[in-house]
Each structure stands twice: as structure tokens, then as C-alpha cells.
Amino acid sequence: MGHSLSPTGKPIYNSTPETVADLQAAVDFAESTGGILKGTATQRGNLTTAQWPVGWLFSETDTGRLYLRTTAETTGVLVGGKGLPHFAYQRIDPYGFDTTLAAITYAETPFEGELMGFTTNNRRVFTCDIAGVYVVAAVAAAISGAGITETYTNLQIQRNGVTLAAGNSQSIARAGWFTSPTATASATVRFQRGDTLQVAIQSGAAVQGAAGPNCAMFVDYLHP
To answer: What's 3-81's CATH class?
Structure first.
């Protein structure tokens, strides 16, 4: 054979060439040490498993993000780059809540950053499209109003409809112009693609026509 391999797999050629074997050794080494593809986000989504092997990276030229192909995630796991998922939503509800636990519908657009890592068509249920570990925080505070008393409790962060974290035991209430402490909940959660996220809250005594709680949700991507 016209070559031998170093401990790292690099071909070392001698004076007795074997064209096909030598060329194949060079290709094999380039493949084993390269493993980086580049293209647009659309091109990444269209790659087959044969075109993008497990363990290879894909660099998105239009987003600046870097994805790792794994056995579980055929479209890759976000591992770095520009614009890691982060968003925040708020809601100021003009109406009272029912006494049953209900998911919060947030404002039409995020008030911090843009909606990244999740998609939604109703601003109430958010579907994960970039798998990974996220920090989710929720907060709710009653809005003061004259002559109205209403209590909100049971703030929850839910994944796929299952409660991951419940708010502190201190309910929030408003009586006249006074507002009691804020209810908060937070959780570090692993989301797979297709998992859903929602924040729910419950009213202790519904008052129709009364202003509901001022709610916010913050979501930050930690790691794959």
C-alpha cells in the first residue's frame, strides 16, 4: 500500500503509490476531520440523514446559528452561534378571569426580542421548534382599581399540559386602589421539538368586567 495512517488517521504516503487506495484514504481523513456543512436554514431542513451524518455540524449562512446532527434530532440540535432563542410576552387583561384554571393569552407581539425557538398561532400555546433546555419564568400582578376586589392564585408553567412549576403560595389580590404582592413561577425545562409551553392562572373570585392580572412570561435558551 502506498500509505500508512498516523495515530490521528492522517495518511502518510510512501514511494509506492496505490492511486485508488491513496485517494480514498485522503477522502476518508478529510471527512473524519471536517464534518461541517453550510447553507441556509431551508437547506438544512431538507437534508437527508445520508447527506448529514450523525456527529456533523451545519452552519446556517442566513441566521448565523450552528446545529449538531444527532440520532434523535434529524434536523439538528442548536449548539451555538448568533441569535439563541429568547423572548418575552406580556398581557394586560381587560376582563376578569373564571375560577377555573386557564391558559394566559399574551399580547400580539413579544415586548422583548422576537419569538425564537417557539411558534404560536394563538399566543396562548407555544410549540417548541428548537429542542433544548430553557429557563421559563412567569409573573402575574393584580391591577389596582376602585371598589373592586379580586384574587388570583395558582399560577402555573406547563409543558404538554402538565404542570412543571407552580407559583408561590401567596395569591395576588386587588382591593380598592391597593395591590398585594406579585405571584411568580420559574422552571428549567427540557423541550423536545413539538412540545408545548403555556402559562396558566386561576381567579379565586371572578368579577366580570374587572381588569385581570398583568402577566408576563420570559423564555431563555440555555443549552442543547
So the answer is: mainly beta
